[in-house]
Design goal:
Elements: E1 15-18, E2 25-26, E3 40-42, E4 46-51, E5 57-63, E6 68-69, E7 77-80, E8 84-89, E9 96-101, E10 105-110, E11 125-128, E12 134-139, E13 146-151, E14 156-160, E15 165-170, E16 177-182, E17 189-193, E18 197-201, E19 208-213, E20 222-225, E21 231-236, E22 242-247, E23 257-260, E24 268-273, E25 278-283, E26 288-294, E27 301-308, E28 313-318, E29 330-338, E30 343-349, E31 365-366, H1 374-378, E32 387-388, H2 410-418, H3 422-475
Parallel strand pairs: 2-6
Antiparallel strand pairs: 1-30, 3-4, 4-5, 5-7, 8-9, 9-10, 10-11, 12-13, 13-14, 14-15, 16-17, 17-18, 18-19, 20-21, 21-22, 22-23, 24-25, 25-26, 26-27, 28-29, 29-30, 31-32
Length: 488
């Protein structure tokens, strides 16, 4: 008599659920760019989506409470001269976002707490280095104001956004860089390239520590560092079958696991949750989200389930764990873009009967405080991320304007540009509409007065003309009949 032993896992019954349409975001002109990017970035305050825009590139930023159908003239972030290709929220400041574009420039923006009330065209800082389009922007996980950018010129640059200078320039890729990922403490950089190779690089020196062929196929590949140092990749075989693999950094050319999934042609984006060791595979053009658990037991990558939707996805964004609802055992939340212009919200939940805080589901997670400054990081110091507990829910700080930086910080300057303090920025946003209403009233009053003045001027001109006629008749009543000589 044979029987099958079921693997024990607290995530075996994780299920996905899409929110109702009125709780999602609709009427969004999602970018039609063919660039392989997620087009979406999320944090606990805002949702950002790259959109189609005439006369340059733009993306839209929405507070999470602004659900429903969007107005066609909703304010944009629109300072780029070419289409925006990638966006990324700063992990240490929920009001700061970076964007890369086809105009070869990377811009860093500051979004006020209440969202935008008018189109934003003035960035905090422009980062100019790349000679061709910039298709990848990535923030450092532990160091403040450190940003990585990669362009189609095969160059990778690491910036100190606080001073606007490039700290490191990495020139070891012979072709376009498809993806990049820092490890847990940011001491190593993992990249995939169009030459089919995966590389582990020292981000401070640009030296390649190890490299190997990632996937045999010629289509785009993706790779991420897992929390305990392993490398997870997605790509294509020679026969264009989609694959995923698991590798160790010491032996990149010998995968622990290499599995073929299907024959679809959409690039797969691996989205990773380090707290639960779950990897979500979301393919461009797919209508499914597959999720897997990474463990130390064979086969190491365990398939859990698939979330199915009727519409293919154009892009996707994943909420950081501090933005999830711990009271309903929500472990992940996705923002999925459809071609129809709908941004669908999908929650991944572990079914539990108890309403108490589940400590096994929510270990301490990434906080929003940096462990290092940019200067400390470039000098060679490494530090683990600062973790926070979600037991009482995530409480965002009142203001991020109080970040202290030893050198000139252009982020602070940008915040000062929009208002000397955060409170003044909020007040100006709140009263801006009132000023606009007052201006409209004044314009209406001016038009009314102008019409009245024109009417009075016409009336005066008419009465003047009548007076002139009466005056000429009074002086010579018989002017039409001149007197004869015999009448004198």
């Amino acid at each position: 008599m044979s029987f099958r032993v079921v693997r024990t896992s607290k995530f075996r019954h994780v299920y996905g659920q899409a929110l109702k349409r009125e709780q999602c975001y609709d009427n969004i002109r999602v970018s039609k760019s063919s660039w392989d990017a997620t087009f979406c970035a999320v944090n606990p305050k805002f949702l950002a989506i790259i959109v189609e825009s005439a006369g340059g590139g733009a993306f839209i930023v929405l507070p999470h409470n602004k659900v429903g159908r969007l107005a066609a003239d909703h304010p944009l972030v629109g300072g780029h001269k070419g289409p925006v290709l990638d966006i990324a929220w700063c992990p240490h400041n929920d009001n700061v976002i970076a964007s890369g574009s086809e105009d070869c420039v990377v811009k860093v923006w500051h979004i006020p707490d209440g969202g935008l009330v008018k189109t934003l065209t003035e960035p905090i800082v422009d980062l100019v280095f790349h000679q061709r389009r910039v298709g990848l922007v990535l923030w450092h996980p532990t160091a403040l104001n450190v940003l990585l950018t990669a362009g189609s010129d095969n160059q990778v640059a690491i910036w100190n956004v606080g001073t606007g200078e490039a700290l490191v320039k990495i020139d070891c890729h012979p072709d376009i860089v498809y993806s990049a990922c820092f490890n847990w403490d940011g001491s190593q950089l993992l990249t995939t390239c169009k030459d089919k190779k995966i590389r582990i690089i020292n981000p401070r020196s640009g030296e390649v520590e190890s490299e190997a062929v990632c996937h045999e196929g010629s289509k785009a590949t993706r790779a991420i560092f897992l929390r305990h140092g392993l490398v997870f990749t997605t790509g294509f075989s020679k026969m264009s079958e989609r694959q995923y693999s698991l590798r160790t950094p010491d032996a990149l050319n010998e995968p622990i696991v290499m599995v073929e999934l299907d024959t679809s042609n959409g690039v797969m984006f691996p989205l990773y949750d380090p707290d639960t060791n779950l990897v979500y595979l979301c393919g461009k053009g797919d209508s499914v989200i597959r999720y897997f658990e990474i463990t130390a037991e064979p086969p190491f990558v365990h398939y859990i389930n698939t979330f199915q939707t009727p519409d293919p996805q154009r892009g996707i964004g994943m909420m950081p764990k501090r933005g999830c609802d711990v009271t309903s055992c929500e472990i992940s939340r996705f923002y999925r873009l459809n071609n129809s212009g709908l941004c669908q919200v999908i929650t991944m939940t572990v079914p539990r009967k108890s309403e108490l805080f589940q400590e096994d589901l929510y270990p301490d997670t990434f906080g929003d405080s940096a462990a290092l400054s940019a200067e400390e990081w470039i000098e060679g110091k490494d530090a683990e991320p600062i973790l926070i507990s979600l037991k009482d829910g995530y409480k965002p700080p009142e203001s991020k304007a109080t970040i202290t930086v030893t050198k000139r910080n252009m982020l602070d300057k940008g915040q000062a540009k929009t208002g000397k303090t955060q409170n003044q920025t909020q007040i100006s946003d709140k009263t801006l509409q009132e000023f606009a209403d007052e201006i409209r009233k004044l314009k209406a009053m001016i038009v009314k007065h102008e019409n009245r003045i024109r009417a009075l001027e016409a009336e005066v001109a008419l009465s003047k003309a009548n007076a002139d006629e009466d005056g000429s008749g009074g002086d010579g009543l018989n002017a039409g009949h001149p007197l004869g000589d015999d009448e004198v």
